[in-house]
Amino acid sequence: MKHSIQSIFIFGLSALLLIYLKRQGAILLLPNSFINIMVGIIILTIWNEIHFFIVHRVMHLPFFMKRVHKIHHHSKVPTVFAVYSFHWFEALLLSTVPLTIAVFIPLSAVAIFLYPLVSILLNFAGHCNYRFGNGKGPSWRLFGSKHNAHHFKFANHYGFASGIMDKLHKLIIPKINQRKK
């Protein structure tokens, strides 16, 4: 509970930084039309997949796993209570999703402030210890059921709500290693 409250506080502070950057002119906002809100949520969801994968892979490096990410993995069988159970440093990194995209791509304010709701729902799906669908096909990969297995094995399935980044990583890394030889 202590780590979750601390993480929620840190995520909340990132909203203040967004407001500050908007007031400084570093972030441009689009009008809050239905299409801008929907496109913004889609962009944030895609960016969150990429951002989360990178941060999560770094957290599994031995240095960070021993000192930071182990707190999240105390839940070997994840529950919704593990959703925000992070070391403060990991929470800080994960809270930067809107900050790291909004300075480059204009989004609507409503999309930025609705996205945490979308994110938490996807996060609940990945930590609710329930397999969506039959365990095969897109319904299983889409809702983060593989993240349950990740908590148990501590390896594989580093993505957020889908397995797309894991698949790309498996395709790209072997090719890079082959070029080095």
TrEMBL record:
Keywords: Membrane, Transmembrane, Transmembrane helix
Keyword Transmembrane: yes
GO cellular component terms given for this protein: membrane
InterPro entries: Fatty_acid_hydroxylase, Sterol_Desaturase_Related
Listed Pfam families: FA_hydroxylase
Keyword Membrane: yes
Molecular function as annotated in GO: iron ion binding; oxidoreductase activity
Residue ranges crossing the lipid bilayer per the database entry: 33-56, 101-122
Subcellular localization, as worded in the UniProt entry: Membrane
One GO process term, biological-process aspect: lipid biosynthetic process
Chief subcellular location: membrane
Domain Fatty acid hydroxylase intervals: 42-169
PANTHER family per record: STEROL DESATURASE
Protein's recorded name: Sterol desaturase family protein
Organism expressing this protein natively: Marivirga atlantica
